Amino acid sequence: MRLYAVVAAGGFRRYATYRIETAAGVFTNTVFGFILAYTFVALWEERPRLGGYDMPEALTFVWLGQALLMTCVMMGGGFEDELIERIRTGDIAVDLYRPVDLQMWWLAQDLGRAAFHLLGRGIVPMVCGAFAFDLALPGSPWPWLAFLVSVALGVVVSFAIRYLVALSAFWLMDGAGAAQISFLAGLFFSGMLLPLTLFPGLLGEVARLLPWSTMLQVPADVFLGKHTGWGLVRVYVFQVSWAAVLLLVGRMVQGVATRRVVVQGG
Amino acid sequence: MAEAPGTVFVPRSRLVEGVRAYGLIVAMWLRSTMAYRASFLMTAVGNFAATAFDFVAIMLMFAHVDALGGYTLPEIALLYGASGTAFGLADLLMGSMDRLGRRVRDGTLDTLLVRPVPVLAQVAADRFALRRLGRITQGLLVLGYGLVAVDIDWTVVKVVVLPLMLLSGSVIFGSVFVAGGAFQFVAQDASQVQNSFTYGGNTLLQYPPTIFAKDLVRGVTFVVPLAFVNWLPALYVLGRQLPLGLPEWVAFLPPVVAAVCAAAAGLAWRTGLRAYRSTGS
Lengths: 266, 281
Fold this sequence. Notes:
heterodimer, A: 266 residues, mainly alpha, globular, B: 281 residues, 13 helices
C-alpha cells in the first residue's frame, strides 16, 4: 500500500513540474469557459430552468466542466498514450516482471496526476468564472466534500476506461483508433458539450446511464446539491458500480492479454 | 527535381522556393500517410466526427429553443460552416505549427535550420495531416446546409463576398497559427495558449456576436481580428446589422485584414526565429 502511495505522489510531482504548461492550460480552460458560459447565458435567457438548472447553476456547470476537463481526462491523452507505447515497443514485458500489480500501479499514478490537475488546472478557472459570473457555489462545506468524493470516483471510472483503451494495443498494436473513440465518447457523453439533462428522450436516458456520466454530470449535480441523503448514496453506488465493473473487466482483459499475446520485440 | 549537372544555380524568389519546398514535404507525408490507408480513413472519419459533435450540441440546444441570441439554427449553421471551413483549411495547411515548441525543446529545430529551405515551410509541412480534411468536409456540409436553409436575398456582391470570406478567413487563422509558432520560440511549453486563439476562436465564431459581451466582440474585432473570418462578412450576406454599430463596408475588408495579418505574422515569425538560441544538445 505504501508503494502505491509513493507512486501516486510521483504522479502528482511529475505533472507539477511543468509550471508554464500548467499556466498555459489554465489560460486555455478559462478562455473556453468564457465562450461556453456566454452561449449558456443565451440559452438559459431563452429558456430559464432548462434541464432543471437555473442560470447560476448552468453557469456553474460550465466552469465545473473546465475544472474537471483535465482531472477526469475527458478529452483523453493521459497515461494511456504512454502505456500503449510501452505495449507497442515491447517494454511492457519489463513492467510485467515487476513485483507490482500493473493495473494498480497505473491507477495510483493516475490518481496522483488527477489530484494535481484538480488543484493546478481546476481552481484558477473556477475562481475566474466566479468573478465574472454569478455562480451557484455551495455555502456549507458538505456539498464540497461530497463533490470531492464524487470526483475521485469519476477519476477511477475514467482511469478504468482508459486502461481498457490502452490494453487494446495488445491486439491492435496501434491504439490511436480506440483512443479516438474513447475521446469522442468522453467529450459527448460526459456532459462536457451540454448537460446530459438537456439530451432529449431515449438518448438522454441512455447517456445518463453510461459510465462517462460519472465524470462530469454526476459530480456537477452533487456539487449543485441535486443529490442529497439517499439520492447521494444512490449516485455513489452508481459510480462505484461502474468503477468496479470496468476495473474488473480491465483485469480480465489484462489476464487474457498477458497469457495469449506474444510480446513484440527482442 | 535534381538540376542537370553543370547548370548554374538559378536563384528563385524566397516565396517560390518556400512554396515549392512546402509542396515537396507535403507530398512526402502524403505518400507516408497512404501507406496505411485504413488508419488514414479511420482518423479522417474521427476528425470529422469530433467536429461534428460540436454541431450536434448546437442542434440539441435548438431542440429546446427556436433562436439563440436572435439567430435561427440555419443562420448559426452558416456562421458555423464559414468559420469551420476557414479554420479547417488553415489547420490543414498550417496546423503543424504547434509542434514547434517540442522541436525547440528537444533540439530538432536545429536540423531544419541547416537545410537550404525556408524554416517556415519546413515547420508548417511537418507531419502534414491529411486527416484534417475531415474537419473541412464537416465545415462545408454545415455551410451548405446553412446556405440552402436560410432565405438569402442574393446579389452579385454577396456571391463574391462568400468565397472571399472563406479564403481570407483561412489566411487570418493561418496567421494566428504562424504568430503562435513565433510565440513558441519564447515560451516553449506554452503551446496551449495558441489553442485559445485557434480552436477557441473557432468555437467563438460559431455563435452569433449578439450573445457575447461587447468587450469580447471589440477584442476579436480590433485586437485579434477574428471577427473578419466570418462574423462581419456572413452577417452582411445574411442582411443583418453588423456588431458594434460598424458600417456595412467593413464587411468587404476581410481580404485587406487577411493581408495585414499575414504580414504581421511574417514579421513575428522572423523576430522569433532571429531570437532563437539552440539548446546546444
